[in-house]
Amino acid sequence: MTPSSRVLYRRPDHADNLVHSDFLSSLQVTPPSSRSLPSLLRAAQPLTQRLSLLLLLLALHAHLLGGALVAPHLLLFCALLLSPLLLALLLKPRIERNRIVVGTGVKLLLLASLSPLLHTLVPISLDTLTFLLLLLFTLHLVPPLRLTAGTAGAVLLCTTHASARDAFALLLCAFTLLFFLPPLLPVRSSTTATLAGLATAALAAHSRAAGGAATLLLAAAGVAAPSLMWAALRRPGGKVRLSGDWDVAVPRVRAR
């Protein structure tokens, strides 16, 4: 039969292209994605913990610069923070343990050799120093730039100390709080609240204004931002996704 034939009683040699709409009932309908508020709060806890450690570092720097804290006490504080890391290191295999010990030893040697040079750098104005510290420590919260920006910010922070011993103690504390300790912290509400309270108390002991600013910043990062995101996800709208077998809806063309 030719394509132009109009004889209705003849059976065509190709399937009919008409597809009934019943196939839509077999498709799976996925509503717009929405997350619960507790899950968003848990997802924000790592950022809140890093912000708490960063604010704690700034508080220790302020106390050390003002004379309320001395370098031996700061080194003792770092040793107490590193004790869980040493316990976790003993549980690792021998080869990996040796690699970590060698890498940590090299870092400590670099810190010890770098510390006497920090106070000899060209002094920077307070406005420039504040801007650079805010920029570097903000970039430190971005995972791809965490190591580079954190190291540069810690070194820049130590340039304000005239004593090589103070610079070494603060630099070791910065590496402990920014790099060594965060992987060991569990993502729990109790841990996050403890770190936030410790950072706020340390800053409030130096300045009430700094303690209030730290409280607002940590509350915004840990509670306000996830709550706003949860409210936005609960708004009606968004894309409804359909998944299933769409092959039955594809027109079949006769091969010529």
UniProtKB/TrEMBL annotation:
Subcellular location: Membrane
Entry superkingdom: Eukaryota
Membrane topology summary: Multi-pass membrane protein
Transmembrane in keyword set: yes
Protein name as annotated: GPI2-domain-containing protein
One of the GO BP terms on file: GPI anchor biosynthetic process
UniProt family annotation: Belongs to the PIGC family.
Cellular component, GO annotation: glycosylphosphatidylinositol-N-acetylglucosaminyltransferase (GPI-GnT) complex
Record has Ligase as a keyword: no
Record keywords: GPI-anchor biosynthesis, Membrane, Transmembrane, Transmembrane helix
Main location: membrane
Record PANTHER family: PHOSPHATIDYLINOSITOL GLYCAN, CLASS C, PHOSPHATIDYLINOSITOL N-ACETYLGLUCOSAMINYLTRANSFERASE SUBUNIT C
Chain ranges passing through the membrane: 74-91, 100-119, 131-156, 168-185, 213-233
Pathway(s) where this gene product acts: Glycolipid biosynthesis; glycosylphosphatidylinositol-anchor biosynthesis
Annotated signal peptide: none
InterPro entries: Plno_GlcNAc_GPI2
